[in-house]
Design a protein that fits this description.
The complex is a heterodimer of chains A (about 230) and B (about 350). With about 230 residues, chain A is mainly alpha-helical. Chain A is built from seven helices and no strands. Chain B is globular, with a radius of gyration of 21 Å. The chains are: A mainly alpha (about 230), B alpha/beta (about 350).
Amino acid sequence: MERHLDSQLERIRQNLLRMGGMVERMIGRANDALVERDEEAIRQVIEGDLEVDRLEMDIDEACHHTLVRYQPTAVDLRFLVAVMKIVNDLERMGDSAVNIAQSVEQLNREPPLKPYIDLPEMSRVVREMVARSLDAFVRRDVGMAESVLATDDEVDARYKQLFRELLTYMAEDPKTVSRCLHLLLIARNLERIADHATNVAEDVIYFVEGRDVRHRLAQAGRSGGSGG
Amino acid sequence: MSRDAEGVETRGAAAATEAEGGRSAGAAAVTEAERVVEPVATPSPPEDRAGETGRSVREAVRGAPRAGEPEPQLPGRAVPGPQAPDAVRVQVPDPVFDLRDLSLWYGDNQALRGITMQIPERRITAFIGPSGCGKSTLIRCLNRLNDLIPGVRIEGDVVFEGETLLGPEVDVNLLRKRIGMVFQKSNPFPKSIWDNVAYGCKLQGITKRSELDEIVERSLHSAALWDEVKDRLHDSALGLSGGQQQRLCIARSIAIEPEVILLDEPCSALDPIATAKIEELMQDLKDDYTQVIVTHNMQQASRVSDYTAFLYLGELIELDETDQIFLKPHKKQTEDYITGRFG
């Protein structure tokens, strides 16, 4: 039976995917801005954020509306709960992309410190995490969501490595401190985006299986709660 | 009966078999589909079913019933279909009713098919399912109201606090004192409010007016009706509103201090405010009575009950904590029903 509710959910899903696509593009353009010293890319990232914020509010409103009007249950309810959380994470990713663009703006006022290799690679991995977490949502693919969780550790390791490297630069030559700090901020923001992609993947697992996989340490201390 | 021991799936044991059950789901689905589409009018003999139920209980799986069935779609596109009649049921705390492979026929028409489940004490258990699924028949088995219908045949057993309810030696009047019932259509006696509540107690031989007064007041208080009727206790009960009449019927049930209250669609004729009052009342009564409610209104089941049993075509599909049923049911049929995809 085709339900009225289905068309509402479909519209929400379409908007969520649009928002996800925009965020992915923003992260990519922020990287272009860095590597190619592209002023236009910086502007696009900052403009993109406006649209992402707008979509966040639209989707939230549509979710509230659907909750009130249809009082959904089971998979429909889990879908909406997951969407409302994913939207929040996507919006934060957008903010991080803007932060990166702003750091790049500062960086581009000076000559490059060195050829950028690690940051673009980190950006690529992070974008892939975002894309895969959203794919997992669309396909209801728990395996794919779990692979995103695994990749987060890789990103964390890269961030730590970059941190050490930049520390050495700064110690050796204080004139590089300003640039190093901006590069560090960029790495930090990429690492944050990866964390948000991890949250999205966790929400996908909740949506598909009704299973809460967050905070394993805290879970161990809970009595189990009701309803799993 | 060794099957009884297996009849109750514990969460731990089921979780252990989860992976295995998920893999076997595809193979099982074929035979299950065949069974569900078979006409209701040609029931399989109960002796055959006994073996089947034994198997099904062992295979009952908590979680991942749809493993191996990728659906790259948004929720809502799944096509409902007959699936997996092997019931999923949790162990309930302090079971007071124990239904054992209960089947019931109205003449040739089988209304209940091998229902095995327990109902917990001092909690609210809701029966949900589409019209004709057997939920009203099932609740009527709990105080033998089906006895009154000619041509009814029952197999299996209903055990209440360790004793069978179905034997000819059971005193049905005494039973219905212990297990009260409230019906869809409120049915106050054409007497005064006071008489309605005191009636059952008088039948039991209580004659002292002061004692009866006390019972009437206490029962009306419990049914959250006292304040509305205390000044007109001797007016006709038929002058009350529908919601008040229904609460009067609950007061009448409570007056004889039953252990169990059965409610068969108690709110279906009431407006939302009267419905809310009955639901509040059910929560207030929870500490003292075991309550079983049949309802068409799934939101009501999710609001009031602690446990929910989903029935379909006379079979128990799933019994679980209400939160679990409405957040993440284990059976696709349950999910399709509560999300409005069929039924």
